[in-house]
TrEMBL record:
Domain FHA, chain residue ranges per copy: 22-76
Keyword Ribonucleoprotein in record: no
Protein name (record): Kinase-like protein
Family statement: Belongs to the protein kinase superfamily. CAMK Ser/Thr protein kinase family. CHEK2 subfamily.
Location of the Protein kinase domain: 125-380
Keyword Chaperone: no
Single annotated GO MF: protein serine/threonine kinase activity
One Pfam match: Pkinase
Gene3D superfamilies named among the record's database cross-references: 2.60.200.20, Transferase(Phosphotransferase) domain 1 (1.10.510.10)
Superkingdom as given in the UniProt entry: Eukaryota
Binding-site residues, ATP: K154
Keywords: ATP-binding, Kinase, Nucleotide-binding, Serine/threonine-protein kinase, Transferase
Amino acid sequence: GILYPLSSELERIELYGDQPVTCIGRNPEDNDAVLLGLQVSNKHCKITLDGRGDGNFHVTVTDYSTNGTWINGSNIGKGQTRILKDGNEIAFGQSRAQRYPPATDYRYIYRRCASTPPTGLHAHYDVGHQLGQGSFGTVSKALSRKTGIWYAVKVIPRQRNQKFVSVIAQEIAAMEKLQHKNICQIEEVFFSEHSISLVLEYIDGGDLMGFIRKHNGLDEFTACNMTHQITTAMAHIHGRGIIHRDLKPENILLTSDNPPIVKIADFGLAKIVDIQTIVKTECGTPTFMAPEVMTRQSYSHLVDSWSVGIIVYGMMTTYLPFFEDPPMDIRIQVADRTIDLSALDNVKPSSAAKHFIESLLQYDPNRRLSLINAEKHPWLVKHNTILTIDPNLDTEARSIGPELVSTGERCHFLGVHVRPNVDSRLHRALFRGEQ
């Protein structure tokens, strides 16, 4: 096999079949492969080819180091042994590249030199390190052998359970129908005996939750810009008869551009419905779930409007617009939430921004603003007008002032008791990372 370095400064490490043990470390006298970085121990690890010469063998890694040997971001542990599989990332001394101060990146991709060529996903992509957990599976970074473009690959263990297969089929079908700049695109799908692999557009800027926490909340213009992109994507989704049903900041990915481009992702709970169909299944993340889902009322695409309302409120205040009682039954907690927008008093948004949030957080779905109509709301209309006039204005110049008020009657919270002047510290500060 061969260890291919992720850094152009390093050479590949070849593992020979006639040499069953390869020692790696900093000491040139005791190792077959020498890595000179200070994070590498003198005797760092050994790689063993365990098996016969007929292709039926395993590669194992035994760690002896102080700073660790990592496989796909998981530390093996000193004195412990792990199997190294084809396509795994192995790192010596640290699991990620060090930027400050800069240091050599001792991460490699292991490729097995097999007698038969790779098939399926691995015939077209080199799979790198794990990016995280997605719905039902892990997500890894992968490089297209043909184009050299990076993608994110969601690998989902295949089960015999028919309900599981149905959910995965929904996700694939939903994503293949959607072509939009603010929606994470699906490149292709690979089916194997044990897994289903979705090759997705790679988004390199993290998610909205991390962005909110990094900036400790967003100014109104930035929040409005994000909201505009979210509602544009969701209008496209709803226009094609799809309900996301699990919309939350972690499922809203961002590019590394400035300002970031929004990418709606993770349709694991999406449900393709005819425009007249009403869905009656419970799913989604409770924090962002609309009340009608738990009351077992029939519901439609307007459940996504509720989720967007919570997200917009969180972007501007870093708080949730209700109180949570963890011991309470989740069904009662979601259905009986009391909306409280008092944290907005701390950020003093425009009247239009507050009205927009109120319009989305209506308990009665029939009074709730649809995301298809959201672009017509004065808050987003003025945002689009400002960008059309001069997209390069600084934050102060493009501030959306409080003089903008919506036309028509103000939306009311039907059946909702609003507690005024409540100390916002009592809110569950999910967007601050507090639990």
